[in-house]
Specification:
With 411 residues, the protein is α/β, with parallel strands linked by helices. It contains twelve helices and eleven strands. Strands 2-1-3-8-5-9 form a six-stranded mixed β-sheet, covered by helices on one side. Strands 4-11-10 form a three-stranded mixed β-sheet.
């Protein structure tokens, strides 16, 4: 005998089955055996969904197109801003030069009272001429900082030293440098002050932070103390001169042609021209001797001197390798000083000594200078005897003076 609950369950099942059958055969309802007209609510709903889908696709395409146009416009505006910044920078540089010219070309002034007269330490600046090399001029606007740039002259023969040079420049935080194969005064003509650098120089600080900029030329010295670097009164004696026994002379050790800062002045440009012309006309001339002669010799019958103002750099800040390996490495107090740059100009084993400088000053390896020197002294002696032999036989093709190698027997 069936209970009331079982009857209810059976009725529900039958109702569900009948509903499914009617839904299959009459999807639009029992009273609409055919699809409803377009005015029916069901039809309007389907059309609305389809229409929204189509409009959504079109809207997304329009949005993408709009974003693309905005990106192109933004890129164009950024380009215009960059060009305007470049023009503004050039205008500010021109303004600075104009003000400098105005000061120098102003009305003549009366001299100050005796004891207070001060002359100008540098010559009048010249206006740049970017037409001499427009391509380089464009590069320099991106590289130079404050119209100043380090220029190193190098080729494939010094690749290893150049790689070390670049590493040290970057480590010292120097952004304004350029490696070129030019040897003329084009940089000065373009309006840039140049720090000319040999490739055998180790930079430990930014040299532009330690320049005076008060002379036509600031140059590193090959001297090793106050007398040899900055000049001294050298007295010689001639016994047959009687009362006039002593003769006073002024002496100064050579300026280094491998490291000097040159300003944008006529004497500075003329110095570069003179040195370049003489080296072209005299293939066997030593560039350092020519550089010193043109910079230091006065006018005399048959010759017109240059008259460029010059400043000798602090030899403890801008250090040559004689000072470092003969003096500094033996002095515990001087070893605490950190130079701006070290020029390995007194030694032939340049790359190894450059590495020693880095080991000592950058990585604080205390015995780097002593160990390197003891290892290299035998090589130096080999070069000395080789140089001595070729001098005796008149077969030398080197331009390095004998004194560079003779030094090591006294270190």
């Amino acid at each position: 005998m069936r209970t009331p609950s079982s009857r209810i369950g059976a009725a529900i099942v039958i109702g569900v089955v009948v509903g499914c059958v009617f839904a299959f055969f009459y999807p639009y309802g029992f009273f609409y055996p055919n699809p409803p007209p377009k005015s029916h609510p069901f039809f309007k709903y389907d059309v609305l969904v389809e229409s929204w889908s189509n409009e959504s696709t079109e809207w997304m395409n329009m949005l993408r197109s709009y974003i693309r146009r905005l990106s192109e416009k933004n890129a164009e505006l950024q380009k215009q801003v960059k060009e305007l910044n470049e023009k503004l920078q050039i205008a500010e540089q021109e303004k600075g030069r104009a003000q400098e010219q105005l000061v120098l070309l102003g009305e003549p002034k009366k001299a100050a009272p005796f004891g207070k007269v001060k002359s100008s330490r540098t010559s009048r600046p010249v206006l740049p001429d970017e037409s001499v090399n427009p391509r380089l001029a464009k590069i320099l606007t991106k590289v130079a900082v404050g119209k100043e740039v380090i220029v190193v002259l190098a080729n494939s023969k010094v690749k290893s030293m150049l790689e070390m040079w670049l590493t040290n420049v970057k480590r010292a935080g120097i952004p304004n440098y350029l490696v070129v194969a030019l040897d003329d005064d084009v940089f000065l003509q373009l309006g840039y002050r140049v720090l000319l650098s040999d490739v055998d120089i180790v930079y430990l600080q930014n040299p532009f932070d330690h320049l005076y900029r008060d002379s036509d030329v600031e140059v590193m010295s090959n001297g090793h103390n106050n007398m040899t670097a900055y000049g001294y009164n050298d007295v010689s004696a001639e016994a047959d001169m009687g009362w006039a026994l002593y003769t006073h002379t002024m002496r100064i050790w050579a300026y280094s042609s491998g490291f000097f800062y040159i300003r944008l002045t006529i004497p500075a440009i003329e110095l570069w021209d003179r040195v370049a012309n003489r080296l072209t006309q005299e293939p066997n001339a030593w560039d350092q001797a020519v550089f010193n002669e043109e910079l230091a010799l006065p006018s005399y019958p048959g010759y017109i001197g240059l008259y460029a103002s010059r400043r000798v750099m602090d030899f403890y800040l801008y250090m040559n390798s004689k000072i470092l390996f003969k003096i500094i490495r033996k002095d515990s107090n001087l070893k605490k000083l950190k130079p701006v740059a070290v020029h390995i100009n007194y030694h032939p084993d340049k790359l190894y000594r450059m590495k020693a400088v880095v080991e000592y000053y950058v990585y604080s390896k205390q015995d780097a200078l002593i160990w390197m020197h003891s290892q290299m002294v035998q090589i130096d002696r080999y070069f000395y005897f080789k140089r001595r032999r070729c001098l005796d036989q008149h077969t030398c093709t080197w331009n390095i003076p004998l004194g560079t190698y003779y030094l090591f027997f006294f270190l």
